[in-house]
Amino acid sequence: MGSLLRAILVGLVGAGIVHALVLLLIPYVTAADVWARLERRAAFYEVVRIDPASGGNMLHLPDPLFEAAACRIDLSEGIVHLQADGEVPYWSMSIYDQSGQNIFSINDRTSNEGRLDFLVATSAQLTELRNSQAEDLGTAVFVETEVQEGIVVVRAFVPDPTFEPTVSRYLAGLDCSLR
């Protein structure tokens, strides 16, 4: 009976030590998430390259044939307009919340005429926008979300080195702004 109590006591003390260490490591782990790293590099609506070629591989992109750019958005300040001019072999766009959950994804094969042209807004903002009958929306696709702050990531495919300048220009021309 004494050895059983001793084993339980050692187990509880060991669990307490592990628990304390995990709690002490939380600030180091959370400070290294993508949101925090992007927040240190750029303000809201500022586009930054995040691929290995730029020296800022924050997403640990597994495929070296893709380059990427990102911007943080805050819908409490207004509707966000995302657009890029030009053509690349393939692009995809994803919107993530602060915890890294993907809330929207699309690529050039499913977008309007293969163009990257999106308005990201809450349902209330979209209702107001539709009621105002704005003429300058063009072919922009409306993306509705209830997430206030998030990250937009645009990835572009580089099939061979000759496409590198085209993809770099495309990502450099990415516009992420308040409407």
Q: How many separate helices? A: 4
Order of helices and strands: HHEEEEEEHEEHE
Q: At CATH's second level, what is the architecture of the largest domain?
A: Sandwich
Strand order of the largest sheet: 1-2-8-4-5
- Percentage of β-strand residues: 25-35%
CATH class of the largest domain: Mainly Beta
Label the overall shape: elongated
The major β-sheet equals: 5 strands, antiparallel
SS class: alpha+beta
Query: For the CA atoms, what is the radius of gyration?
Result: 22 Å
Structural domain count: 2
Residue ranges: pLDDT <50 for 5 or more in a row? none
Mean pLDDT: 85
Quick one: how many beta strands? 9
Proportion of helical residues = 25-40%
Distance N to C terminus: 72 Å
**CATH level 3 topology of the largest domain:** Immunoglobulin-like
Could you give the topology of this structure?
Elements: H1 2-30, H2 34-41, E1 48-49, E2 66-74, E3 80-84, E4 91-97, E5 102-107, E6 116-121, H3 123-132, E7 141-144, E8 149-157, H4 164-172, E9 175-178
